[in-house]
Amino acid sequence: MLNRIERKVRPMKGSKILKVNYLARVEGEGSLYLRIKNGQVVDAKLKIFEPPRFFEAFLRGRRYSEAPDITARICGICPIAYQMSSVHAMEDAFGVKVGGQLRALRRLLYCGEWIESHVLHVAMLHAPDFLGYDDAIRMAQDYPDQVQMALRLKKIGNELVTLLGGREIHPINVKVGGFYKTPSKAQLMEFRKSLEWGLQAASDLTKWVATLDIPKFEQDYEFVALSHPEEYPLNEGRLVSNKGLDIDISQYDEYFEEEHVEHSNALHSVLRGQDSYHVGPLARINLNFEKLTPQALKVAREVQFKPVCRNPFMSIVARGIETVFAVEEAIRIIDQYEEPERPAIEIKPKAGVGYGCTEAPRGILYHRYRVDDKGIIQSAKIVPPTAQNQKTIEKDLWHFASEYIQLDEKELTWKCEQAIRNYDPCISCATHFLRVHIEREDGQ
Amino acid sequence: MNAPEKILVLGIGNELRGEDGIGIYLARKLKALSIPGVRVEEHSGEGTSLLERLSQYNAVLLLDCVYADRPLGEIVEIDLTNGFLSREQVYSSSHQFGVSEAVRLAGVLGKLPERCRLVGIVGRHFGYGRGFAPEVLQAVPKAIARVQQILQEWNSSTH
């Protein structure tokens, strides 16, 4: 659909209000409200005002087998994440473990989603902020090679998702227990050629974004991510943090809670009795740096990425490194692939509760389902990464805007939008347009 | 064997979001007419894959819903070969890298087809669910007739 865009500046007596009726390059619909008094930020609210989406409610009464396809519809960018968290949760409820090549194929599919999501955000949505362009189109006039490379790289991610998932958006080949159909070795080996080019391209893209002018800004975050003893986390692991958290995913509800806040339709997640936390590429890489694949680790060291990195603007570099990882991991999985005897293992429903937590491109995605003995869903809980980061984004803006308070509205808005995009927020997952509203009470 | 189609028609939208699905609806109507030399596809509007489709044909016609300060059901026709879709004028909704970004980027990268046009119908209702306002549905025959006329012109000049 084509939409009009509106940008209005509406002065009021004794104060200045800048109202941007859209924040571009953010998936979803919401707004940022910033109130400034006597040169100080006194209020920062990331508002999400799309009506609640009711996915948890209309999963009730549906069969367990429908969860991956229904939840995939929550997001057009990260449907694999929803499918993965839901199948893992169902398998947990039924006491089933999917291993071997089926597990590897799930990981391969997830690599495809990471590549397409990360590259879109790094090159097309976030890089223009750092270079002073309104959007990727204007950037493409001066950086056509980087944009063309990113487009080709993203296409590789899309193709991988299509190859394993059946189609590019809202894939249909994932099921509880495995897949409906698995690829042949020959199909994957043919695709491997694209990945070989992609590995170099992802490395070059990362090195390029590392040369961008990264704002100096650090916060003492609690980074939360999955951690697996043998691999960089995608589908499995314990939930850990840089401040001592180390829990099984089944303990999620004991340690995390969601708060309803008046200004948002999405629930704010916090650590119980504590405060906000940070999920996503920066959290993952800080907590799993040594588990990166060799080329990803080499690139990370070349660009001088050092964990623990507390600068959220470095998330663009973290996404680049994770793209290198995802391409490299995809090659490894394809090289070791042997066609499985069956596309899925047999599932026998039983009553119980199942937990799933996987690493969506934007951070941990938690699913919990209670099912009856026929596999009918009795209750569902879904906590997307953007809802988990929402409070952290508000706090970032509070502190970041304070440092740039002297800027005029246009510049300050630009900086705030750039800061929000550090989290690649997918607001439609969390509950759609972001409006930025800065109110100065001191008349400056 | 049929000769490969030289003209691509893309019906764009989400049929589960009210009038945003009118591009898809138009595409299905057009596909049923089986016009020689014309390939009709449905597309989500996702920008990067749309960009790729644009670069693969010399003539592309987009069918889409248009949200604009115009009367509901009005037919909008835009020649896209001159980079008309500047950000200030129109904006896409899908993942913030959608139709207008794809068209503009194709222009910058020299990937715009020689012929590229959009025929859209102005919509107003984009909530969850299927269905179109009567004004939108009433515009369909006229939109299809105009699309057929464009395709006939393009077809005759490509032979």
Structural class assignment of chain B: alpha/beta
- Give the structural class of chain A: alpha+beta
Rg of chain B is 15 Å
Number of domains of chain B: 1
What would you note in describing this structure?
The complex is a heterodimer of chains A (444) and B (159). By secondary structure, chain A is α+β, with helices and mostly antiparallel strands. Chain A has a domain of 80 residues. Chain A contains 14 helices and 16 strands. In chain A, strands 2-3-16-4-5 form a 5-stranded mixed sheet, covered by helices on one side. In chain A, strands 8-9-10 form a 3-stranded antiparallel sheet, covered by helices on one side. A 3-stranded antiparallel sheet of chain A has the order 13-14-15. Chain B has 159 residues and is of the alpha/beta class. Helix content of chain B is 34%, strand content 22%. Chain B is built from 4 helices and 6 strands. The chains are: A alpha+beta (444), B alpha/beta (159). At the A-B interface, β1, α4, α5 and α6 of A face α2, β3, β5 and α3 of B.
TL;DR of this structure?
Chain A has 444 residues and is an alpha+beta fold. Chain A contains 14 helices and 16 strands.
